Amino acid sequence: MQLIATCLFGLEAVVSRELKMLGYDDQQVVDGRVVFSSSLSAVCESNIWLRSAERILLKVGDFSAVTFDELFIGTESLPWQEYIPSDGEFPVEVSSINSRLASVPDCQSIIKKAVVEKLKKKYKTDWFEESGSKYKIVAMLLKDKVTLAFDTSGTGLHKRGYRDLMGAAPLKETLAAAMIMISRWKWDRMLIDPMCGSGTIPIEAAMIGLNIAPGLNRRFAAEEWHFIPKEMWIMSREKALSLGQKDRELRIQASDIDEDSVRLTRYHAQRAGLENEIHIQKLPVSEISSRYKYGFIITNPPYGERVGDPRELSALYKEMGRVFSGFDTWSYYILNSNMEFEKFFGRRADKKRKLYNGGLLCNYYQYFGPVPPRDVTENF
Ligand SMILES: C[S@@+](CC[C@H](N)C(=O)[O-])C[C@H]1O[C@@H](n2cnc3c(N)ncnc32)[C@H](O)[C@@H]1O
Predict the structure, then answer these.
(1) Nearest atom, ligand 1, residue 301 CA
(2) Is the pTM above the cut of 0.85?
(3) 198 to each of 246, 262, 264, 295, how far by Cα in Å?
(4) Element (H, E) at 59
(5) Tens of pLDDT, residues 118-170
(6) Ligand 1 within 6 A of 175 CB?
(7) CA dihedral sign, ordered 246, 218, 335, 317
(8) What is the number of structural domains in the chain?
(9) Which atom of ligand 1 is nearest to the CA of 285?
(10) Do 62 and 21 share a structural domain?
């Protein structure tokens, strides 16, 4: 069986690393996706555990198609009847990139017709009520190659369940988690997000720190599917629960200049059951401090596109540069779409990585601090 973990462009290597940590070594990385081989239980495990992936798809098959006939024949040849029961609902979602079959509505109706034809043969009926569980078919056309799959996740994996109110420009939970994993922050190190907004970065960090599976408290589309035993989900959840490290003492600070943001962060942390893991306060970035010699600042300041007056932003970035330079033994990681950020910040990043935030091209500016000496156990 092949599964596909879809992700934001730029995060493929992060998803791949997460999958390797779960033991899925047989992988193929392509733009925006990691295809991996697995058994059925991986549907449960990957949905429950992956922090940086958007969805988990169950691949049904792939083929090349440049005409609608080829699309119909290729689709009809796949074993849909093995997955979709007679009352199953099977909407079709299509994306087409650099392919001759570019009309999404046409592809959608052809794929639907082909699946119906296949099911008619098995169920000996002309009419499907589609009143049962949902088996959403995802069709991805890329350079004339068609990949057909089922969406096992349902709601996107960024929806962990704790964030139900919107801040001014919240990060997707998947992106925030990826930013933390890219930084290689570990639970016993200090972490500050001095512009926390709705709290996504500190909350994702606390979940990583305590090894809490991000999908533990939500449902997935494939939980309703007849060919995945309910016990498989129960066992995967029980195992995930048992791997949590609730006793760890984390050192995570979240602050923001805005009172509403501070309240929102506190509310979301409570909903995630993590209010005791994060120290939250109202504070301008200019006043952050720490008694620890080593640590991480991971943050997502305003960009101007969505939050903040562009004229004030250069002053804010300068201020960040001044304040962070006082944390000269720390590492900092800053996501920003302003291509002149480094100029205002006053220091070139050691490494940059292109990431997309809500479709907006950003740089993830990475500034590496020194590695703490091995014998430092108290002060980092
Ligand atoms: C892009 S938002 C952060 C969004 C956040 N990562 C989330 O997921 O919700 C930027 C935040 O920076 C805060 N901010 C702006 N200027 C600040 C300053 N001088 N000091 C501290 N926070 C500031 C804003 O109040 C806003 O909440």
Answers:
(1) 10
(2) yes
(3) 23, 7, 5, 22
(4) strand 55-64
(5) 999 999 999 999 999 999 999 999 999 999 999 999 999 999 999 887 767 89
(6) no
(7) negative
(8) 2
(9) 20
(10) yes
Shared domain check, 203 and 118: no
Q: Which of 256, 283, 334 to mutate to test the pocket of ligand 1 (most atoms within 8 A of CB)?
A: 256
Among 334, 176, 204, 196, smallest CA distance to 262 is for: 196
Q: What is the best residue among 160, 166, 257 to mutate for testing ligand 1's pocket, by most ligand atoms within 8 Å of CB?
A: 257
**Distance (Å) of CA 145 to CA 2, 4, 90, 136:** 17, 15, 22, 20
Give the three-class secondary structure for 221. Answer: helix
- In which residue are the tokens 């703490």 written? 372
305 ligand 1 Cβ < 6 A: no
Nearest to 105 by CA among 117, 96, 114, 115: 96
Q: Are residues 59 and 192 in the same domain?
A: no
| 256 Cα: distance to centroid of ligand 1 (angstroms) | 6
Token reading at 359: 């479709």
